[in-house]
Amino acid sequence: MDTALTKRFFWMEEDSRTYADQIQQTIHGFSNRDYVREVQHSIRRFAEEISQNSLQLYAGTNVMSPAAEAALSARIGSLPSMGHPGNKYQTGLAHTEKVEVITYELINRVFGSVHGEFRLFSGTLANAAVIFSYVKPGESIMVLPEWAGGHASHHQVGVAGHMRLDIQEIPYDAANMTVDVTAFAAKVKEVQPKLVIVGGSLALTRYPVREMKEICQRQGAILLYDAAHLSGLIAGREYQLPLEEGADVMTMSTYKSLGGPPGGLIVTKNPEVARRIDRVTYPGFVANYDANRVCSLAISLAETAEFGQAYAKECIKNAQSLAAHLADNGLPVLQPVAEYTQTHHVAIDARPFGGGGKVARDVEPSGILFSGIELPGEKAAGDINGIRIGVQEVTRWGMKADEMKLIAEWTADAVFGRRPKEEIKKDVMTLRKSFQQVHYCF
Protein backbone atom coordinates (compact mmCIF):
# COMPACT_ATOMS: atom_id res chain seq x y z
CA MET A 1 0.00 0.00 0.00
CA ASP A 2 1.29 3.46 -0.89
CA THR A 3 1.06 5.35 2.40
CA ALA A 4 2.81 8.51 1.25
CA LEU A 5 0.68 11.57 1.96
CA THR A 6 2.98 13.63 -0.23
CA LYS A 7 0.89 12.89 -3.31
CA ARG A 8 -2.44 13.59 -1.62
CA PHE A 9 -1.41 16.60 0.45
CA PHE A 10 1.22 18.15 -1.75
CA TRP A 11 0.39 21.66 -0.49
CA MET A 12 1.34 20.82 3.12
CA GLU A 13 4.76 21.66 4.52
CA GLU A 14 7.39 18.96 4.12
CA ASP A 15 7.64 18.44 7.89
CA SER A 16 3.87 17.91 8.07
CA ARG A 17 3.86 15.40 5.24
CA THR A 18 6.74 13.48 6.78
CA TYR A 19 5.07 13.38 10.19
CA ALA A 20 1.73 12.26 8.75
CA ASP A 21 3.48 9.52 6.76
CA GLN A 22 5.16 8.23 9.92
CA ILE A 23 1.89 8.12 11.85
CA GLN A 24 0.10 6.43 8.97
CA GLN A 25 2.77 3.73 8.89
CA THR A 26 2.31 3.21 12.65
CA ILE A 27 -1.46 2.80 12.48
CA HIS A 28 -1.56 0.72 9.28
CA GLY A 29 -3.78 -2.30 9.80
CA PHE A 30 -5.59 -0.91 12.86
CA SER A 31 -9.13 -2.06 13.52
CA ASN A 32 -11.81 0.48 14.38
CA ARG A 33 -11.50 -0.49 18.04
CA ASP A 34 -7.73 0.01 17.81
CA TYR A 35 -8.32 3.56 16.59
CA VAL A 36 -10.53 4.26 19.59
CA ARG A 37 -7.90 2.93 21.98
CA GLU A 38 -5.19 4.97 20.29
CA VAL A 39 -7.21 8.17 20.55
CA GLN A 40 -7.97 7.51 24.23
CA HIS A 41 -4.29 6.80 24.86
CA SER A 42 -3.32 10.07 23.16
CA ILE A 43 -5.82 11.99 25.32
CA ARG A 44 -4.36 10.49 28.50
CA ARG A 45 -0.77 11.16 27.44
CA PHE A 46 -1.54 14.74 26.42
CA ALA A 47 -3.25 15.43 29.76
CA GLU A 48 -0.27 13.96 31.58
CA GLU A 49 2.23 16.04 29.66
CA ILE A 50 0.30 19.27 30.17
CA SER A 51 -0.73 18.81 33.80
CA GLN A 52 2.32 17.01 35.18
CA ASN A 53 5.36 17.14 32.93
CA SER A 54 5.57 20.64 31.49
CA LEU A 55 5.21 24.36 32.06
CA GLN A 56 2.78 25.74 29.49
CA LEU A 57 3.93 29.28 28.65
CA TYR A 58 2.28 29.42 25.24
CA ALA A 59 0.38 32.71 25.10
CA GLY A 60 -2.70 31.28 23.40
CA THR A 61 -3.91 28.69 25.89
CA ASN A 62 -5.22 28.21 29.41
CA VAL A 63 -6.78 25.63 31.72
CA MET A 64 -10.52 25.52 32.41
CA SER A 65 -11.97 25.19 35.88
CA PRO A 66 -13.25 21.71 36.83
CA ALA A 67 -16.85 22.97 36.66
CA ALA A 68 -16.42 24.49 33.21
CA GLU A 69 -14.62 21.39 31.96
CA ALA A 70 -17.41 19.14 33.24
CA ALA A 71 -20.03 21.26 31.44
CA LEU A 72 -18.07 21.00 28.20
CA SER A 73 -18.29 17.20 28.32
CA ALA A 74 -21.93 16.98 29.47
CA ARG A 75 -24.52 15.14 27.36
CA ILE A 76 -26.43 18.22 26.22
CA GLY A 77 -24.79 19.17 22.95
CA SER A 78 -26.26 16.62 20.56
CA LEU A 79 -29.65 18.28 20.03
CA PRO A 80 -29.54 21.03 17.38
CA SER A 81 -30.40 24.56 18.52
CA MET A 82 -31.23 27.15 15.86
CA GLY A 83 -32.39 30.69 16.49
CA HIS A 84 -32.76 32.95 19.49
CA PRO A 85 -33.82 31.72 22.95
CA GLY A 86 -37.60 31.51 23.20
CA ASN A 87 -38.02 31.24 19.44
CA LYS A 88 -36.12 28.13 18.37
CA TYR A 89 -36.65 26.13 15.22
CA GLN A 90 -36.57 22.97 17.38
CA THR A 91 -38.56 22.06 20.49
CA GLY A 92 -37.37 20.57 23.77
CA LEU A 93 -34.65 23.16 24.40
CA ALA A 94 -36.11 25.09 27.34
CA HIS A 95 -33.27 24.26 29.72
CA THR A 96 -30.45 25.24 27.38
CA GLU A 97 -32.38 28.32 26.24
CA LYS A 98 -32.36 29.44 29.86
CA VAL A 99 -28.57 29.06 29.87
CA GLU A 100 -28.36 31.25 26.75
CA VAL A 101 -30.14 34.08 28.57
CA ILE A 102 -27.90 33.58 31.61
CA THR A 103 -24.87 33.74 29.33
CA TYR A 104 -26.05 37.01 27.79
CA GLU A 105 -26.44 38.45 31.28
CA LEU A 106 -22.99 37.30 32.40
CA ILE A 107 -21.28 38.63 29.27
CA ASN A 108 -22.74 42.07 29.87
CA ARG A 109 -21.85 41.95 33.56
CA VAL A 110 -18.24 41.04 32.84
CA PHE A 111 -17.58 43.29 29.84
CA GLY A 112 -19.97 46.20 30.44
CA SER A 113 -21.66 45.53 27.10
CA VAL A 114 -25.29 45.47 26.04
CA HIS A 115 -24.98 42.48 23.72
CA GLY A 116 -22.77 39.43 23.43
CA GLU A 117 -22.67 37.09 20.46
CA PHE A 118 -21.39 33.74 21.76
CA ARG A 119 -22.47 31.26 19.07
CA LEU A 120 -19.32 31.54 16.94
CA PHE A 121 -16.76 28.78 17.30
CA SER A 122 -13.55 30.83 17.31
CA GLY A 123 -12.08 34.30 17.60
CA THR A 124 -11.26 34.17 13.90
CA LEU A 125 -14.93 33.59 13.06
CA ALA A 126 -15.84 36.45 15.41
CA ASN A 127 -13.54 38.74 13.41
CA ALA A 128 -15.03 37.42 10.19
CA ALA A 129 -18.58 38.16 11.35
CA VAL A 130 -17.69 41.79 12.09
CA ILE A 131 -15.84 42.18 8.80
CA PHE A 132 -18.76 40.72 6.83
CA SER A 133 -21.13 43.04 8.69
CA TYR A 134 -19.37 46.23 7.65
CA VAL A 135 -17.07 45.75 4.67
CA LYS A 136 -17.68 44.76 1.06
CA PRO A 137 -15.13 43.30 -1.39
CA GLY A 138 -12.81 46.01 -2.69
CA GLU A 139 -13.35 48.34 0.27
CA SER A 140 -10.54 49.29 2.65
CA ILE A 141 -9.71 48.24 6.17
CA MET A 142 -6.75 49.20 8.36
CA VAL A 143 -5.02 46.66 10.60
CA LEU A 144 -1.84 46.28 12.62
CA PRO A 145 1.14 44.84 10.72
CA GLU A 146 1.72 41.16 11.32
CA TRP A 147 5.08 41.97 12.91
CA ALA A 148 3.20 44.20 15.39
CA GLY A 149 0.81 41.45 16.49
CA GLY A 150 -1.80 41.78 13.75
CA HIS A 151 -3.63 38.45 13.50
CA ALA A 152 -3.77 36.34 10.36
CA SER A 153 -7.55 36.81 10.15
CA HIS A 154 -6.97 40.55 9.62
CA HIS A 155 -4.55 39.99 6.77
CA GLN A 156 -4.23 38.64 3.24
CA VAL A 157 -4.01 34.99 4.30
CA GLY A 158 -7.20 35.27 6.37
CA VAL A 159 -10.82 36.27 5.86
CA ALA A 160 -9.87 39.84 4.91
CA GLY A 161 -7.79 38.56 2.02
CA HIS A 162 -10.37 35.98 0.94
CA MET A 163 -12.95 38.77 0.83
CA ARG A 164 -10.63 40.70 -1.52
CA LEU A 165 -10.47 43.69 0.77
CA ASP A 166 -7.97 46.50 0.39
CA ILE A 167 -5.83 45.85 3.49
CA GLN A 168 -3.80 48.82 4.73
CA GLU A 169 -1.43 48.77 7.71
CA ILE A 170 -1.89 51.00 10.73
CA PRO A 171 1.25 53.14 11.31
CA TYR A 172 3.07 51.62 14.25
CA ASP A 173 5.53 53.07 16.73
CA ALA A 174 7.89 50.11 16.98
CA ALA A 175 10.05 51.57 19.76
CA ASN A 176 7.08 51.95 22.10
CA MET A 177 5.09 49.04 20.58
CA THR A 178 1.88 50.98 20.08
CA VAL A 179 0.01 52.90 17.37
CA ASP A 180 1.55 56.10 15.97
CA VAL A 181 -1.53 58.29 16.45
CA THR A 182 -0.38 61.24 14.34
CA ALA A 183 0.53 59.08 11.36
CA PHE A 184 -2.65 57.04 11.90
CA ALA A 185 -4.84 60.15 11.62
CA ALA A 186 -3.21 61.11 8.33
CA LYS A 187 -3.53 57.63 6.88
CA VAL A 188 -7.17 57.19 7.89
CA LYS A 189 -7.97 60.45 6.10
CA GLU A 190 -6.15 59.18 3.02
CA VAL A 191 -7.43 55.58 2.97
CA GLN A 192 -11.02 56.19 4.18
CA PRO A 193 -11.35 52.69 5.67
CA LYS A 194 -14.71 51.17 6.51
CA LEU A 195 -13.20 49.27 9.44
CA VAL A 196 -10.12 49.66 11.65
CA ILE A 197 -8.88 46.69 13.67
CA VAL A 198 -6.55 47.23 16.63
CA GLY A 199 -5.27 44.50 18.92
CA GLY A 200 -3.70 41.19 18.10
CA SER A 201 -1.50 38.30 19.07
CA LEU A 202 1.06 40.19 21.14
CA ALA A 203 0.59 43.20 23.41
CA LEU A 204 3.06 44.56 25.92
CA THR A 205 1.46 48.00 26.25
CA ARG A 206 -1.96 49.64 25.85
CA TYR A 207 -3.42 50.91 22.60
CA PRO A 208 -4.63 54.54 22.23
CA VAL A 209 -8.26 53.54 21.79
CA ARG A 210 -9.82 56.91 22.70
CA GLU A 211 -7.66 58.78 20.20
CA MET A 212 -8.23 56.17 17.50
CA LYS A 213 -12.00 56.29 18.05
CA GLU A 214 -12.06 60.07 17.60
CA ILE A 215 -10.14 59.72 14.34
CA CYS A 216 -12.33 56.86 13.09
CA GLN A 217 -15.50 58.73 13.99
CA ARG A 218 -14.50 61.74 11.90
CA GLN A 219 -14.12 59.47 8.87
CA GLY A 220 -17.12 57.22 9.53
CA ALA A 221 -15.04 54.09 10.24
CA ILE A 222 -15.97 51.36 12.70
CA LEU A 223 -13.30 50.61 15.34
CA LEU A 224 -12.91 46.92 16.22
CA TYR A 225 -10.74 45.92 19.18
CA ASP A 226 -9.46 42.34 18.84
CA ALA A 227 -9.06 41.16 22.44
CA ALA A 228 -8.32 37.52 21.58
CA HIS A 229 -5.37 37.41 23.98
CA LEU A 230 -6.36 40.20 26.35
CA SER A 231 -9.96 39.37 27.21
CA GLY A 232 -9.13 38.00 30.67
CA LEU A 233 -7.27 41.15 31.69
CA ILE A 234 -10.06 43.33 30.31
CA ALA A 235 -12.68 41.25 32.13
CA GLY A 236 -10.67 41.64 35.34
CA ARG A 237 -10.52 45.41 34.81
CA GLU A 238 -6.76 45.44 35.26
CA TYR A 239 -6.12 46.55 31.69
CA GLN A 240 -7.71 49.11 29.41
CA LEU A 241 -11.47 48.82 28.84
CA PRO A 242 -11.92 49.16 25.06
CA LEU A 243 -15.70 49.57 25.01
CA GLU A 244 -15.57 52.31 27.64
CA GLU A 245 -12.77 54.02 25.70
CA GLY A 246 -14.88 54.12 22.54
CA ALA A 247 -14.35 50.91 20.55
CA ASP A 248 -17.54 50.12 18.63
CA VAL A 249 -17.12 46.40 19.00
CA MET A 250 -14.75 43.92 20.63
CA THR A 251 -13.98 40.36 19.57
CA MET A 252 -12.14 37.69 21.49
CA SER A 253 -11.29 34.05 21.99
CA THR A 254 -12.86 32.55 25.10
CA TYR A 255 -10.17 29.99 25.91
CA LYS A 256 -7.03 32.11 26.26
CA SER A 257 -6.65 34.58 29.12
CA LEU A 258 -10.41 34.33 29.79
CA GLY A 259 -9.91 30.68 30.76
CA GLY A 260 -13.13 29.35 29.24
CA PRO A 261 -13.94 26.72 26.60
CA PRO A 262 -12.84 27.00 22.95
CA GLY A 263 -14.90 29.55 21.06
CA GLY A 264 -15.35 33.15 19.99
CA LEU A 265 -17.23 36.09 21.46
CA ILE A 266 -18.32 39.51 20.17
CA VAL A 267 -19.41 42.28 22.55
CA THR A 268 -20.67 45.82 21.95
CA LYS A 269 -22.49 48.68 23.67
CA ASN A 270 -24.23 49.67 20.43
CA PRO A 271 -27.57 47.90 19.72
CA GLU A 272 -27.34 48.68 15.99
CA VAL A 273 -23.89 47.08 15.80
CA ALA A 274 -25.32 44.07 17.65
CA ARG A 275 -28.23 43.79 15.21
CA ARG A 276 -25.98 43.79 12.15
CA ILE A 277 -23.61 41.21 13.59
CA ASP A 278 -26.49 39.02 14.77
CA ARG A 279 -27.89 38.86 11.23
CA VAL A 280 -24.53 37.79 9.83
CA THR A 281 -23.88 35.25 12.59
CA TYR A 282 -27.23 33.47 12.25
CA PRO A 283 -28.01 32.10 9.79
CA GLY A 284 -24.97 33.37 7.89
CA PHE A 285 -22.11 31.73 9.81
CA VAL A 286 -23.86 29.48 12.31
CA ALA A 287 -26.95 27.31 12.13
CA ASN A 288 -26.77 25.09 15.20
CA TYR A 289 -24.62 25.93 18.19
CA ASP A 290 -22.91 23.70 20.74
CA ALA A 291 -24.89 23.88 24.00
CA ASN A 292 -22.04 22.21 25.90
CA ARG A 293 -19.71 25.05 25.00
CA VAL A 294 -22.21 27.75 25.96
CA CYS A 295 -22.92 26.13 29.34
CA SER A 296 -19.18 25.90 29.96
CA LEU A 297 -18.76 29.54 28.92
CA ALA A 298 -21.51 30.63 31.33
CA ILE A 299 -19.70 28.96 34.23
CA SER A 300 -16.37 30.48 33.17
CA LEU A 301 -17.91 33.95 32.97
CA ALA A 302 -19.50 33.61 36.41
CA GLU A 303 -16.10 32.64 37.81
CA THR A 304 -14.52 35.59 36.02
CA ALA A 305 -17.11 37.94 37.52
CA GLU A 306 -16.18 36.57 40.95
CA PHE A 307 -12.41 36.09 40.71
CA GLY A 308 -11.36 37.86 37.49
CA GLN A 309 -9.77 40.94 39.00
CA ALA A 310 -7.52 38.99 41.38
CA TYR A 311 -6.54 36.67 38.51
CA ALA A 312 -5.78 39.47 36.06
CA LYS A 313 -3.74 41.33 38.68
CA GLU A 314 -1.66 38.22 39.41
CA CYS A 315 -1.14 37.54 35.69
CA ILE A 316 0.36 41.00 35.17
CA LYS A 317 2.45 40.76 38.32
CA ASN A 318 3.79 37.35 37.27
CA ALA A 319 4.61 38.53 33.75
CA GLN A 320 6.55 41.50 35.06
CA SER A 321 8.42 39.29 37.52
CA LEU A 322 9.21 36.66 34.89
CA ALA A 323 10.42 39.30 32.42
CA ALA A 324 12.75 40.86 34.99
CA HIS A 325 14.22 37.49 35.96
CA LEU A 326 14.65 36.45 32.32
CA ALA A 327 16.59 39.68 31.73
CA ASP A 328 18.67 39.07 34.86
CA ASN A 329 19.57 35.69 33.36
CA GLY A 330 20.91 37.29 30.20
CA LEU A 331 17.97 36.98 27.81
CA PRO A 332 17.18 40.05 25.64
CA VAL A 333 13.68 40.85 26.90
CA LEU A 334 11.82 43.63 25.09
CA GLN A 335 11.06 46.67 27.26
CA PRO A 336 8.94 49.20 25.36
CA VAL A 337 7.74 51.00 28.51
CA ALA A 338 9.01 51.57 32.06
CA GLU A 339 7.88 48.04 32.93
CA TYR A 340 8.81 45.13 30.73
CA THR A 341 5.11 44.54 30.13
CA GLN A 342 1.68 45.86 31.08
CA THR A 343 -0.02 42.56 30.25
CA HIS A 344 0.47 38.82 30.76
CA HIS A 345 2.77 38.70 27.70
CA VAL A 346 6.57 38.74 27.65
CA ALA A 347 8.61 39.07 24.44
CA ILE A 348 12.23 38.11 23.82
CA ASP A 349 14.48 38.93 20.85
CA ALA A 350 15.34 35.51 19.44
CA ARG A 351 17.75 36.60 16.71
CA PRO A 352 20.90 35.90 18.77
CA PHE A 353 19.75 32.28 19.09
CA GLY A 354 18.75 31.59 15.48
CA GLY A 355 15.08 32.59 15.61
CA GLY A 356 11.97 32.07 17.71
CA GLY A 357 10.79 28.85 16.09
CA LYS A 358 14.20 27.25 16.55
CA VAL A 359 14.41 28.30 20.20
CA ALA A 360 10.92 26.96 20.98
CA ARG A 361 11.78 23.59 19.45
CA ASP A 362 15.18 23.46 21.15
CA VAL A 363 13.72 24.22 24.58
CA GLU A 364 10.71 21.87 24.30
CA PRO A 365 12.56 18.75 25.60
CA SER A 366 13.12 20.61 28.88
CA GLY A 367 9.34 20.74 29.43
CA ILE A 368 9.09 24.51 28.94
CA LEU A 369 6.64 25.33 26.16
CA PHE A 370 6.24 28.63 24.30
CA SER A 371 6.20 29.88 20.71
CA GLY A 372 8.03 32.10 18.31
CA ILE A 373 6.42 35.28 17.01
CA GLU A 374 7.31 38.06 14.62
CA LEU A 375 8.54 41.21 16.38
CA PRO A 376 9.44 44.70 15.17
CA GLY A 377 13.00 44.98 13.90
CA GLU A 378 15.29 43.03 11.64
CA LYS A 379 14.23 39.55 10.60
CA ALA A 380 15.96 36.36 11.62
CA ALA A 381 17.49 34.41 8.76
CA GLY A 382 14.96 31.72 7.78
CA ASP A 383 12.94 32.05 10.99
CA ILE A 384 10.71 34.43 12.94
CA ASN A 385 12.68 36.85 15.07
CA GLY A 386 10.99 36.70 18.48
CA ILE A 387 9.73 34.58 21.35
CA ARG A 388 6.32 35.12 22.94
CA ILE A 389 5.57 33.93 26.46
CA GLY A 390 2.27 34.04 28.35
CA VAL A 391 1.81 33.41 32.07
CA GLN A 392 -1.98 33.01 32.14
CA GLU A 393 -1.97 29.23 32.57
CA VAL A 394 0.79 28.89 35.16
CA THR A 395 -0.90 31.71 37.09
CA ARG A 396 -4.17 29.80 37.12
CA TRP A 397 -2.33 26.80 38.52
CA GLY A 398 -1.41 29.05 41.46
CA MET A 399 2.19 29.97 40.62
CA LYS A 400 3.57 33.31 41.80
CA ALA A 401 6.79 35.34 41.96
CA ASP A 402 8.97 32.58 43.48
CA GLU A 403 7.98 30.21 40.68
CA MET A 404 8.59 32.91 38.04
CA LYS A 405 12.19 33.19 39.24
CA LEU A 406 12.68 29.44 38.84
CA ILE A 407 11.01 29.38 35.43
CA ALA A 408 13.26 32.21 34.23
CA GLU A 409 16.40 30.42 35.44
CA TRP A 410 15.40 27.13 33.81
CA THR A 411 14.43 28.84 30.55
CA ALA A 412 17.80 30.56 30.39
CA ASP A 413 19.54 27.27 31.25
CA ALA A 414 17.78 25.63 28.29
CA VAL A 415 18.36 28.49 25.83
CA PHE A 416 22.04 28.91 26.68
CA GLY A 417 22.66 25.18 27.14
CA ARG A 418 23.88 25.66 30.69
CA ARG A 419 22.36 22.37 31.88
CA PRO A 420 21.16 19.21 30.14
CA LYS A 421 17.51 19.47 29.11
CA GLU A 422 16.72 16.15 30.77
CA GLU A 423 17.91 17.61 34.09
CA ILE A 424 15.78 20.73 33.62
CA LYS A 425 12.75 18.56 32.79
CA LYS A 426 13.11 16.78 36.14
CA ASP A 427 12.97 20.14 37.91
CA VAL A 428 9.93 21.13 35.85
CA MET A 429 8.11 17.91 36.73
CA THR A 430 8.91 18.31 40.43
CA LEU A 431 7.51 21.85 40.39
CA ARG A 432 4.37 20.85 38.48
CA LYS A 433 3.54 18.15 41.03
CA SER A 434 3.10 20.91 43.62
CA PHE A 435 0.59 22.79 41.46
CA GLN A 436 -2.29 20.53 40.52
CA GLN A 437 -5.26 22.63 41.63
CA VAL A 438 -6.91 25.22 39.38
CA HIS A 439 -7.28 28.59 41.13
CA TYR A 440 -9.59 31.59 40.66
CA CYS A 441 -12.72 29.45 40.31
CA PHE A 442 -15.58 28.05 42.38
Distance between the termini: 53 Å
Number of domains: 2
State the total count of DSSP E strands: 16
Oligomer: single chain
Described by the principal axes of the CA atoms, the overall outline is globular
CATH superfamily of the largest domain: Type I PLP-dependent aspartate aminotransferase-like (Major domain)
Question: How would a crystallographer describe the biggest sheet?
Answer: 7 strands, mixed
Tell me the CATH architecture of the largest domain.
3-Layer(aba) Sandwich
| Separate helix tally | 15
From the alpha carbons, calculate the radius of gyration and give it in angstroms. 22 Å
> What portion of the residues fall into strands of 2 or more residues?
5-15%
> How are strands sequenced across the largest beta sheet?
4-12-11-10-9-5-6
Structural class: alpha/beta
The name CATH uses for the topology of the largest domain is Aspartate Aminotransferase, domain 2
| The CATH class of the largest domain | Alpha Beta
Portion of residues within helices: 40-55%
Give the averaged pLDDT, no decimals: 94
Written description of the protein model:
With 442 residues, this protein is of the alpha/beta class. It contains 15 helices and 16 strands. It has two domains: 67-302, Type I PLP-dependent aspartate aminotransferase-like (Major domain) (Aspartate Aminotransferase, domain 2, 3-Layer(aba) Sandwich); 310-433, Aspartate Aminotransferase, domain 1 (Alpha-Beta Complex). 45% of the residues lie in helices and 12% in strands. It has a seven-stranded mixed β-sheet, with helices on both faces. A three-stranded antiparallel β-sheet has the order 13-16-15. Strands 1-14 form a two-stranded parallel ribbon. Strand 2 and strand 3 (87-88) form a beta hairpin. Helix 4 (94-111) runs parallel beside helix 11, helix 11 (291-328) packs across helix 14 and helix 14 runs antiparallel to helix 15. It is globular, with a radius of gyration of 22 Å.
